[in-house]
Each structure stands twice: as C-alpha cells, then as structure tokens.
C-alpha cells in the first residue's frame, strides 16, 4: 500500500519537470538569424554578394524580392497594430534582427530602433558566390510604455542604386491596403494637405527635413489590423509620378503610422 501512495507524487514531479523543460526549450531561445548564419564573427557576410551589386545603376525587384519586401512591410504593420510584439519578432523570425537604441541614461525609455530583414536569393556553389537581399526599417514610439507608433522603409541606399519596386494593384491588395488619397509635396508645404506621417517632423517642416525633398508625390492608404487603424503613405520621386495612377509602381519610401 505504501508503494502505491508514492506513485502519484512521483508522477507529478516528473510531469512538472517535463513542463519546465518544454517551456525553457520553446520560450527561452531565439531562432538562429539568417544574417548570422552567413556572417563571420565580426559581422561581415561571407560567400555572398548583396543583391545591389557594385556598378549597378538600377535594380528592378524580382518576384522573390517583392515577396520578401511585402512580408517585411506586413510585419512592420503587425508590430504597429500590436498584433505581434517586437520581442516575438526578434525571438521567432529568422529573417529579422532587431537593434534597439538604448539610451545612455539607463532610466530613459527605449523609443526607437531598427529592424534588419535578410533573405537568401541563391546559395553559394563551387562556381559562384551566393546572393543575399535585404531591407531595413526604423521604428519609433513616444515612450517606453506606449505602443510602437511609426515605422518607415526606404529604397534609398549607400550604393546609390535606383531601386524599381515594380508594385502593382495586387501587391497593395495583398497588404490589405485601401487607397485614400494622393497629394503632392507642394500641398504639404503650402498647408493644403495637413497629413502627419513621420515622427521626426510635422507636415509643415517635412519638406525641409533630411532627404524628404526628394519626394514629389504621396499615395495615402489605410488599413485596420488588430482593431488598430493604420495609415500607410508611399512616396515617389518626380520621374516616377503618374497623375492618372492610383497605385504607385516605383516608390522609394513607405511611411507607416498607428493612428490614435
């Protein structure tokens, strides 16, 4: 009889230990990052060329490039809406590495950071190097307790390669974006349009901040995710503007904002 009484406590201990083990295995470990797997210990990518190669004047995004860019835009929107947390993305998404800008004063909140998205286009072979693609976004919020409010992705790059995004109506529909309006940079400058979509400057100063002067026209879209209203604004340069189109084919900046 005494032996039978010990069975349940022993089983309870075994299941408890097994539960702790499973929790530690599934919740306490980050997935390996794509960029880390192809980099040396100093962070330099080895055996791969970047998809924006030296000497290239322009780059038209391929279906694979667009698929990854759309996925990255969608992830940024999911973060702004609160559908997923930044920690979840950093822990579980192998393609995205999160760098948060930690203030020098430890009591100050973390309010901005950068997301780096990396994907493999082709693996190295005995006769050729591999090719890797990537995009990045900047993300901002008002304080440490607030939800992430702004994010943006640029097609501008240090190699000065003109990226042709080659988007069509179907690409915007995949992102569940609804067209709202189109306006020019001159409309912001004159105050005809009072649309704020950047954390760094309001519509009055937007035209004179950073490289914003390169923008000629803007296409504003809206969507709702996780019950949170979001505004998405695509900027195009003057040579890519078509007054008759509703969907910008070759945009070079996208601004995302959580409203409210």
TrEMBL record:
Protein name according to UniProt: Deacetylase PdaC domain-containing protein
Organism: Chromobacterium phragmitis
């Amino acid at each position: 009889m005494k032996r039978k009484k010990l069975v349940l406590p022993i089983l309870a201990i075994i299941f408890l230990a097994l539960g702790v083990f499973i929790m530690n295995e599934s919740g306490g470990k980050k997935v390996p990052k794509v960029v880390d797997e192809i980099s040396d210990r100093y962070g330099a990518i080895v055996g791969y060329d970047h998809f924006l190669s030296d000497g290239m004047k322009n780059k038209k995004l391929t279906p694979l490039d667009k698929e990854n860019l759309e996925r990255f835009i969608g992830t940024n929107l999911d973060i702004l809406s609160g559908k997923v947390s930044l920690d979840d993305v950093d822990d579980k998404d192998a393609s995205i590495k999160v760098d948060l800008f930690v203030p020098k004063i430890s009591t100050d909140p973390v309010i901005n950071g950068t997301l780096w998205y990396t994907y493999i286009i082709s693996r190295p072979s005995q006769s050729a190097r591999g090719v890797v693609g990537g995009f990045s976004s900047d993300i901002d919020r008002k304080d440490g307790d607030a939800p992430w409010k702004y994010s943006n992705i640029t097609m501008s790059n240090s190699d000065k390669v003109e990226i042709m995004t080659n988007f069509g109506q179907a690409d915007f529909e995949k992102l569940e974006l609804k067209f709202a309006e189109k306006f020019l940079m001159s409309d912001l400058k004159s105050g005809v349009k009072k649309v704020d979509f950047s954390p760094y400057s309001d519509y009055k100063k937007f035209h004179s901040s950073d490289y914003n002067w390169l923008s000629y026209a803007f296409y504003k879209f809206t969507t709702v995710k996780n019950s949170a209203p979001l505004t998405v604004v695509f900027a195009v340069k003057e040579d890519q503007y078509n007054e008759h189109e509703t969907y910008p084919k070759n945009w070079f900046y996208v601004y995302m904002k959580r409203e409210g």
